[in-house]
Amino acid sequence: MQRFINWIKSLFNRTMDRLEDPEMMLDQARRDMQQALVANREKAVQAITQKNRLQGMLEEANKKSAQLEKQAAMALQQGKRDLATNFMREKMTNDATIATLQASYDSAVQTVEQVKVAIKRQDEEVRAKTAEALAMKAQWKQAQIQNSISKALDGLTFENQFEGFGAASERIKEAQSEAAARQEMFSTSIQGKMMMMEDTSRDMEAESELEKLEQRLGLKPATQEASTATVSVGLNGAAASEAVIQSEAEKQLEELEKRLKSD
Question: Which of 41, 103, 153, 233 has the fewest CB atoms within 10 Å, i.e. the most exposed one?
Fold first, then answer.
């Protein structure tokens, strides 16, 4: 039940938001002005119609008065004075009607002219308000676009994107430092020294083999020094490693003797 009530509230709020939308409000105001203008034009048409009817009645009354006057003149010419008198009485009554019609017609003409001016002004106002509404709708759309841009910019983040680069750089530096430390420790250990001696022995053997190749190719004559170097290079890596181990053992024994004597 609560979910249904919440749905009704959200639907009502959404409808109210749409009703309060400036673009819809401007469209509704423009429609109201157009409807009012159409209604006023219809009233103006009715007023003009009544004015035209009065004009027609006035013209007919004037024609009737002219006809009665003509008939009275003919009666006098024929010596029928009583009949002429009746025609003149009827003309006088018709003239009174003409006076009333003329007053009504003059008032109608004045009213119609005022209505025409009012309609013209209203039409101009509607046109101006329509143009103003279009400008306001454009401003509303521009404001919505600016708000969308601002919201998009508010969501931009740059710091978090570069944190990974900083962390990776620190890890790489740490690994490089650790590798350098291990290399330093390895170079000072017995195993490291042995491997260095073995590398030196291999280099000397390779150099000896190159000299032999040069001698076979006739690029270098054989000498006593070369043979001596060859004999010395002939020492295997195991003998060199043994010498290094012996030397390191002697150093450790000397340090132990010094500690014992000091105790």
Answer: 153
For residues 14 and 77, what is the distance between their CA atoms, to the nearest angstrom? 91
3-class state of residue 5 by DSSP: helix
Structural domains of the chain in order of their starting residue, each with its CATH number: 2-145 (1.10.287), 183-262 (no CATH)
The reported pTM is 0.45
Q: How many CB atoms lie within 10 A of CB 51?
A: 21
| CB contact at 8 A, 69 and 127 | no
Could you give the angle at the alpha carbon of 58 between the alpha carbons of 56 and 59, nearest 5°? 65
Residues sharing a CB contact under 8 Å with residue 121, sequence separation 6 or more, in sequence order: none
The pLDDT tens digits for 191-223 are 666 677 777 778 888 888 888 888 878 776 655
Whether the Cβ atoms of residue 68 and residue 88 lie closer than 8 Å to each other: yes
What DSSP assignment string belongs to 53-69?
HHHHHHHHHHHHHHHHH
